[in-house]
């Protein structure tokens, strides 16, 4: 059935979609809807908004149109041109860099991290007091948390 659809003309796929509902074939309807969804931009350009509304269920049409508009918005955002941002350089004193620890301001996203800092483990460069102030727990308790929880906390604090 899917092979027939893939070899059909686009107009035939729309008619099959409508026919599938008439004969009560849910499987055929799903196959046609998937085919149309994956090529929605083409169908929209070729047949127009009004024609698609006539053939598709309201919920299918609304979902496909929303996904299409979201994809277009994402493409516009990605193609927008702007300035390349330079990472901010944070100056720290020798006193702040005691015992291999760095203050939080040096380890945040968008900052030029100190040399030797491993990006995926920036939280480890916080002093125990700073770590507790940021995460509300000790380093040991943090290491005992599930990986997804640690990642979520790091994202929330700008250390991911």
Account of the 3D structure:
It contains eight helices and no strands. By secondary structure, it is mostly helical. Helix 2 (10-23) packs antiparallel against helix 3. The protein is elongated and about 75 Å long. The two termini are 47 Å apart. 14% of the residues are buried. The model has no long low-confidence stretch (mean pLDDT 79).
List keywords for this structure.
160 residues; mainly alpha; 8 helices; 0% strand
Sheet with the most strands, sense and barrel status: none
Provide the low-confidence segments as ranges: none
Arithmetic mean pLDDT: 79
User: Total strand count, please?
Assistant: 0
Our count of helices gives 8
Distance between the termini: 47 Å
Shape assignment:
elongated
Into which percentage range does the β-strand content fall? under 5%
Helix content: 55-70%
Multimeric state of these chains? Answer: single chain
Order of helices and strands: HHHHHHHH
Instruction: Give me the Rg, rounded.
Output: 27 Å
Look at the helices and sheets and give the structural class. Answer: mainly alpha
Write the SSE topology.
Layout: H1 2-7, H2 10-23, H3 26-38, H4 40-55, H5 58-79, H6 128-135, H7 139-144, H8 147-156
In short:
By secondary structure, the chain is mostly helical.
């Amino acid at each position: 059935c899917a092979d027939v659809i893939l070899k059909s003309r686009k107009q035939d796929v729309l008619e099959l979609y409508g026919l599938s509902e008439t004969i009560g074939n849910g499987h055929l309807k799903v196959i046609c809807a998937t085919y149309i969804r994956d090529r929605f931009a083409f169908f929209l350009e070729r047949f127009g908004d009004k024609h698609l509304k006539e053939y598709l269920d309201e919920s299918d049409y609304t979902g496909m149109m929303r996904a299409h508009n979201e994809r277009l918005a994402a493409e516009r955002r990605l193609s927008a041109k702007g300035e390349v941002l330079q990472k901010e350089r944070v100056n720290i004193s020798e006193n702040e860099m005691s015992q291999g620890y760095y203050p939080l301001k040096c380890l945040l996203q968008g900052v030029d991290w100190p040399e030797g800092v491993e990006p995926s483990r920036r939280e480890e460069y916080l002093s125990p007091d700073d770590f507790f102030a940021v995460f509300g727990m000790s380093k040991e308790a943090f290491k005992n948390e599930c990986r997804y929880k640690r990642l979520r906390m790091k994202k929330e604090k700008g250390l991911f």
